[in-house]
């Protein structure tokens, strides 16, 4: 999974986060808070409920072939991703989480690693949308501009970054995610149980996370991700 996907992963080409906070633009056209919320007003009632919507990948479902088949997208996005969104909507309906952004639901329910029930669905909904945004038809290759400069500063070279990223994905035991992130200042963040504060903050790093865990909870800014699953999601043998 990680090997074939690497050919179409597309590192961001624009700018890195310029301020603290979650809602920053990391690549053109992508904002972290871009999960669409739809307000539904029930007839005859003043009650308004927010509803997270399943956003389709920004390309046709067969556009990533031969690296990722239409069947894989139909299954992975159309069933798995959809189930995370649907289940989360059921879990948060009528609760205080219903009024929050998806990112705030993730941070609130991470609960310093003692996960509250909606965390897995919330984080997986975010992770998968970001994963689809991390790829494009004909993507891959070396970025340019500030990102390339920082990759060379923090990894030595683009080739070394790719090597480290692939190694992270290949060594993630079981299910999880490999990420390129900008490691923010984690010193005073309530959820920053792991990794520990470091002199090496404020740089690009490759990290991996187990299951649904999202580096947002460590105050990292995700820039690129790949989904790692112990049982390949490809339906094509
Ligand atoms: Fe997945």
From TrEMBL:
Residues 1-21 are annotated as: Disordered. Its cofactor is Fe cation. The keyword Chloroplast does not apply. Coiled coil: none annotated. GO terms for cellular component: chloroplast nucleoid. Pfam families: Sod_Fe_C, Sod_Fe_N. Its EC number is 1.15.1.1. Residues 53-136 form the Manganese/iron superoxide dismutase N-terminal domain. Keywords: Iron, Metal-binding, Oxidoreductase. One of its GO terms (molecular function) is superoxide dismutase activity. The keyword Nucleus does not apply. Destroys radicals which are normally produced within the cells and which are toxic to biological systems. Belongs to the iron/manganese superoxide dismutase family. This is Superoxide dismutase. It comes from Oldenlandia corymbosa var. corymbosa.
